[in-house]
Design brief:
The chain has 529 residues and is of the alpha/beta class. It folds into two domains: 276 residues, Rossmann fold (3-Layer(aba) Sandwich); 244 residues, Rossmann fold. It is built from 18 helices and 23 strands. Strand 12, helix 12 and strand 13 form a beta-alpha-beta unit. The two termini are 48 Å apart. The chain binds glutamine (GLN). Glutamine binds next to strand 19.
């Protein structure tokens, strides 16, 4: 087994996850099996309770763990299914160590960062049940952060314990461009690598995020000051689509470098078919269709990362170009002015009352004007409220999330749900099966009657209102266990669908999700290419 560590320097948000996933893709194309593990140095046990403004979307794995959004990138690129073992935080690691101390597992030793915390980290580097040829281990945060230290120390120790041909270290850094001097600067990278070397780690490769190409001289300078071979100074220029990155790395022979240094034997002949597919689907087509995402985190694109990627993947597979507009549900007086120019509307998942009125306004607008609409999780719950109020005339209809004593609790926490074994507090988390009714829009999209999709919510559509709402044109087209509504749709509408689950977590580059394909197809059918 071989281990590739990825750290980041200078600033955060350099795309370590995308770099790791792209390298993983290249190695997969050589026939190797790859998995990626993420370590986040923050003290939260998992990111489930974190504000999306700080850390972006919460990704949900099939086994119901609430994880960093990088796991979504890994799944989409590598077509793997991540689990709880793919996501680790300092909080979770410290919790394990403290629990062990309370249980007396350390036989009276003084429990310390070295060796107890570092041992727990190292244990998790190798704790995967399934065996893979390559493990890519991404250490979150930036080198130089206090929180990262135990993780980097664990990497240093791990390297010493393994053969030099089993471990490879990649440092992803920024090469800033100084406009007034018209120059790319390597100094921040030099400092960052110095910081790593202070800890005892000498990177084997530097991936340089840059807005401009690195010339030979610059590569030589980075090589000299950072003590890596010149061919291991890799350029990562800003690109139109992240899915083009594996090819950019391939052209710089990143895969060969890894294969040589780690003494890996490729298991199949490398072909460039995957690159060709990506290139073909990335050719931009006109016109651009505009899709609005109406949510309360409109200022933070990362909060809707998987929806954004799912839409782009679906657009790539239909060979169309789309433009996603993030609309602030909180500013509902300006909302309709924007929605008028949109070809499709999505109300995504969310928690809490803020932005509810804007979301309801967007749904009314989509329903009345026959604009393709997709409501995800809270978005489906909002569409049930909207239809109850404005079609079924239950004016005070609401979710008990927003009004505990509402006269018409069309969305609520159900008694039936209490039989479900909850993880992460009271949430319904992870994959659940749903059965779809025949002759519905949902059935035509999935082309099958049984689906498995990922959930992250507490509230459900109240079954007591299904009969009444079905008389008004709503259809519940899928159920979990014959009780819990999973998909709703509207008759007399081009495409109006609400899903209680998160289809965005199941998109793959090689397999766009039928719900997103359906939404874009309904736009295409009206407007043409
Ligand atoms: N707040 C809603 C619930 O808990 C919806 C959650 C979501 O959209 N993920 O049921």
């Amino acid at each position: 087994m071989k281990y590739i560590f990825i750290t980041g320097g200078v600033v955060s948000s350099l795309g370590k996850g995308i770099s790791g996933a792209s390298i993983g893709k290249l190695l997969q194309l050589h026939g190797l099996t790859v998995n990626i593990i993420k370590f986040d140095p923050y003290i939260n046990i998992d990111p489930g309770t974190m504000n999306p403004y700080q850390h972006g979307e919460i990704f949900v794995t099939e086994d119901g763990s609430e994880a960093d959004l990088d796991l979504g990138t890994y799944e989409r690129f590598l077509n793997i299914y991540t689990t709880k073992a793919n996501t680790n935080t300092a909080g979770d690691i410290y919790k394990t160590v403290i629990n062990k101390e309370r249980q007396g597992c350390y036989n009276g030793a003084t429990v310390q960062v070295i060796p107890h915390v570092t041992n727990e980290i190292k244990k998790r580097f190798v704790s995967f049940k399934d065996k893979y040829d390559i493990y890519i281990i991404e250490i979150g945060g930036t080198v130089g952060d206090i929180e990262s230290l135990p993780f980097l120390e664990a990497v240093r120790q791990f390297r010493l314990e393994k053969s030099p041909h089993d471990v490879f270290h990649i440092h992803v850094t920024l090469i800033p461009y100084i406009k007034s001097a018209e120059e790319l600067k390597t100094k921040p990278t030099q400092h960052s690598v110095n910081k790593l070397r202070e800890i005892g780690i000498i990177p084997d490769m530097i991936i340089c995020r840059t807005e401009h190409q690195l010339n030979k001289l610059l590569r030589r300078k980075i090589s000299l000051f950072c003590n890596v071979h010149e061919n291991a100074v890799i350029e990562a220029l800003d690109i139109a689509s992240i899915y083009l990155l594996p090819e950019k790395f391939y052209l710089q022979k990143v895969d060969l470098l890894l294969i040589n240094q780690l003494h890996i034997k490729p298991k199949k002949k490398f072909t460039t078919t995957w690159f060709n597919q990506i290139n073909n689907s990335n050719i931009l087509h006109k016109p651009k269709f505009k899709i609005a995402i109406v949510g309360k985190y409109a200022g933070c694109k990362d909060a809707y990362k998987s929806i954004d990627e799912s839409l782009h993947i679906a657009a790539m597979s239909l060979q169309i170009d789309i433009n996603i507009l993030y609309c602030n549900a909180d500013e509902d007086n300006k909302l309709i002015d924007t929605l008028i120019y949109c070809d499709g509307i999505i109300v995504p998942g969310g928690f809490g009352y803020r932005g509810l009125n804007g979301k309801l306004k967007a749904i009314t607008f989509a329903r009345k004007n026959n604009i393709p609409f997709l409501g995800i999780c809270l978005g489906m719950q909002c569409s049930i409220i909207e239809i109850s109020r404005n079609v079924a005339n239950l004016y005070e209809a609401n979710s008990t999330e927003f009004d505990k004593n509402t006269k018409y609790p069309v969305v609520k926490i159900l008694d039936d749900q209490k039989n479900i074994t909850y993880r992460g507090g009271t949430m319904r988390l992870g994959s659940y099966k749903a059965i779809i009714k025949k002759h519905t829009l949902a059935y035509s999209l999935y082309n099958t009657g049984t689906i498995i999709e990922r959930h992250r919510h507490r509230y459900e559509m109240n079954p007591a209102f299904i009969n009444l709402l079905e008389k008004k044109g709503l259809i519940v087209s899928a159920y979990h266990n014959n009780i819990l509504p999973e998909i709703i749709e509207m008759t007399n509408h081009k495409f109006f669908i609400g899903v209680q689950f998160h289809p965005e977590f199941a998109s793959r580059i090689t397999q766009a999700h039928p719900i997103f394909i359906g939404l874009l197809n309904s736009i295409l059918n009206t407007k043409g290419k």
